[in-house]
């Protein structure tokens, strides 16, 4: 069973389970070594908002959540995050669990070369990150940092597109 390291809105169970339909087996707070969190990733659709991304930085680390997922779940994450069209790329990275031991020292995560200066995440998006960090007991200092990230009110375009995007991201029920 692969491990997926989430650092953005996928840390929030409501996003991963609800919006994407991923039924993970375990969730463990963790940090990825050698990555810096930034919020300069433009969306696939032109909403004017920025999203979380990680960029290589040997002196940095990024907090997030390790999720034990199935191979099918990992493929669905790739599909809905746009890995197949170059929106993100999947990489394997060193991770350290903060809580219970995990049988892994590496996990798959997503990073993007698509970056745009001057974009800000929405307050709605940042609330999902903060709620996910709290839900999975990430360090209080990290949660405090997330609360200081400059953000903007969600754009009207993003709010109008959300129901459509939610439908596209949700895994169809089988059976």
What does this structure look like?
By secondary structure, this protein is of the alpha+beta class. The chain has a single domain, classed as Roll (Hypothetical upf0131 protein ytfp), CATH 3.10.490.10. 30% of the residues lie in helices and 31% in strands. It is built from five helices and five strands; from the N terminus they run βαββαββααα. It has helices at 13-19, 71-80, 123-135, 140-148, 156-169, and strands at residues 3-6, 26-42, 50-68, 89-97, 106-111. A five-stranded antiparallel sheet has the order 1-3-2-4-5, with no helix packed on it. A hairpin with a 7-residue loop joins β2 (26-42) and β3 (50-68). α3 packs antiparallel against α4. The longest helix has 14 residues, at 156-169. The two termini are 22 Å apart.
Assign the CATH class: Alpha Beta
Provide the domain count: 1
By CATH, the architecture is named: Roll
Note the beta-strand portion.
25-35%
Straight-line N-to-C gap = 22 Å
**pLDDT below 50 for ≥5 consecutive residues: which ranges?**
none
Name the strands of the widest sheet in spatial order: 1-3-2-4-5
Q: What overall geometry do the principal axes of the alpha carbons give? A: globular
Number of DSSP-assigned strands: 5
Looking at CATH, the homologous superfamily is Gamma-glutamyl cyclotransferase-like
Q: Which sequence of SSEs, written as H and E, runs from N to C?
A: EHEEHEEHHH
Individual helix count: 5
Q: How much is the average pLDDT? A: 90
For the CA atoms, what is the radius of gyration? Answer: 15 Å
CATH topology value = Hypothetical upf0131 protein ytfp
Helix proportion range: 25-40%
Q: Output the structural class.
A: alpha+beta
């Amino acid at each position: 069973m692969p491990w997926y390291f989430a650092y953005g809105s996928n840390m929030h169970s409501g996003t991963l389970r609800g919006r994407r339909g991923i039924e993970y087996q375990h969730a463990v707070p963790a940090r990825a070594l050698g990555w810096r969190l930034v919020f300069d990733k433009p969306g696939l659709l032109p909403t004017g908002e920025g999203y979380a991304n990680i960029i290589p930085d040997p002196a940095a680390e990024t907090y997030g959540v390790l999720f034990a997922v199935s191979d099918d779940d990992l493929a669905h994450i790739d599909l809905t995050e746009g890995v197949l069209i170059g929106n993100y790329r999947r990489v394997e990275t060193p991770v350290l669990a903060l809580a219970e031991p995990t049988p892994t020292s590496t996990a798959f995560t997503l990073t993007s070369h698509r970056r745009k200066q001057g974009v800000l995440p929405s307050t709605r998006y940042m609330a999902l990150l903060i709620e996910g960090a709290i839900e999975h007991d990430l360090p209080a200092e990290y949660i405090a940092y997330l609360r200081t990230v400059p953000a903007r009110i969600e754009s009207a375009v993003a709010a109008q597109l959300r129901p459509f995007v939610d439908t596209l991201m949700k895994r169809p029920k089988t059976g």
